[in-house]
Design a protein that fits this description.
single chain, alpha/beta, six-stranded mixed β-sheet, four-stranded antiparallel β-sheet, 10 helices, 10 strands, globular
Length: 257
């Protein structure tokens, strides 16, 4: 694996007195795609918020391209070359599609480069070009997700954090979004850290994965290895072992082999 662009070491983050993530450590190799899997409430979004500076860890360190960034304000993290696509899209609903994209590039002063990136975004998502003057709030859920990804790309990040990009989308749109995520990684050389509940789609595009449960990493491995894991198959892909028809999944303990 190449040198890590992001290194997370033993971070702990709290919501008041409640521990949300505890002792989480992982690396993201430069140029790769890494996914963090887990059920709703496992702490996946908290990990991304902590990395991006929306929440401060009480313990641990976060290193981005050799520089410690834990506790840094989000706007400074973004200026260093990281972008976040939040859960639920969170586009600016009363601004047009083009104005949303302009907001993604508001820190940039390279007019020619910004125009080039806007053209690239419209190539990845032609529907956004068709709706460039339309209010973002009137777009469909899938189109808003495309816009959120495109807005993040307009800052020209070296690392993109994606929080549940499949949330609320049809299977067809999920497939399309993930294909474009893979293209962004491959063609634009953007490193991806992807948080997902849709384990099957995430592991299809990722190189490496971590499983998060109740704020802790309980399993890690290559995507191929995780796809072959019996626990991943049953608890995240819904595939039962042969002969286990009478054993309900909620009565069987995970072994995380």
């Amino acid at each position: 694996m190449s040198e890590p662009i992001l290194k997370v070491s033993n971070i702990e983050t709290y919501y008041g007195p409640i521990v949300a993530i505890r002792g989480v450590s992982f690396d993201v190799p430069r140029g790769g795609v890494v996914t963090i899997l887990g059920a709703n409430g496992a702490g996946k979004s908290t990990v991304l918020k902590t990395i991006f500076g929306l929440m401060d860890p009480r313990k641990g360190s976060i290193t981005f391209e050799g520089r410690q960034i834990q506790g840094m304000d989000p706007d400074k993290v973004m200026r260093l070359g990281m972008s976040l696509v939040p859960e639920g899209r969170e586009v600016f609903p009363f601004l047009s599609v083009r104005e949303n994209l302009d907001m993604g590039a508001y820190t940039r002063r390279d007019v020619e480069g910004t125009a080039h990136d806007l053209a690239a975004v419209f190539e990845y998502f032609p529907v956004l070009k068709e709706r460039a003057e339309q209010r973002a709030g009137s777009l469909s859920g899938g189109e808003q997700q495309m816009l959120a990804i495109s807005r993040a790309l307009m800052s020209r990040p070296r690392l993109m954090l994606l929080d549940e990009p499949s949330l609320g989308l049809s299977p067809k749109l999920v497939k399309e979004i993930f294909e474009i995520i893979a293209r962004i990684n491959r063609e634009l050389d953007v490193t991806i850290l992807l948080v997902e509940q849709n384990a099957n789609m995430a592991l299809q595009v990722a190189d490496f994965g971590y499983v998060l449960e109740v704020g802790r990493i309980v399993m890690a491995g290559s995507s191929q290895r995780l796809l072959q894991s019996d626990d991943i198959k049953e608890f995240y892909l819904g595939i039962k072992e042969q002969g286990s028809r009478r054993r309900h999944r909620w009565k069987r303990r995970k072994t995380w082999r």
